[in-house]
């Protein structure tokens, strides 16, 4: 359920920021299938129904599954921000752990 809440929150934020063409990449295949309507898992779940309603707005959202090795940078940025109690974080510089993860992701593609 945490992945579904994350998907909801991200899609809602992206919509509110005014983006109308979005490629949403996630490393959870089952959640990607649920969001695309290709899985009957969690049918009737109000959160899934809310996400599906969000996806029917006037925008183009492409949901793509990627492997975890291709998602290391995003996962690390989320981990860095997770403990922030002050709301959204803005980095003034690239966190020191990211360049190595970018190189690892590039090799895994």
TrEMBL record:
Highest taxon, organism lineage: Eukaryota
Instruction: Give the transmembrane region(s).
Output: none
Report domain RNase H type-1 positions: 1-79
Q: What is this protein called?
A: RNase H type-1 domain-containing protein
Identify the species of origin.
Answer: Hibiscus sabdariffa (roselle)
């Amino acid at each position: 359920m945490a992945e579904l809440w994350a998907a909801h929150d991200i899609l809602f934020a992206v919509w509110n920021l005014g983006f109308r063409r979005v490629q949403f990449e996630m490393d959870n295949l089952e959640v990607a299938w649920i969001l695309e309507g290709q899985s009957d898992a969690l049918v009737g779940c109000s959160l899934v129904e809310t996400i599906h309603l969000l996806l029917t707005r006037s925008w183009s959202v492409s949901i793509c599954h990627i492997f975890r090795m291709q998602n290391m940078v995003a996962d690390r940025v989320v981990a860095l921000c997770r403990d922030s109690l002050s709301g959204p974080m803005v980095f003034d510089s690239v966190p020191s752990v990211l360049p190595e993860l970018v190189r690892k992701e590039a090799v895994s593609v």
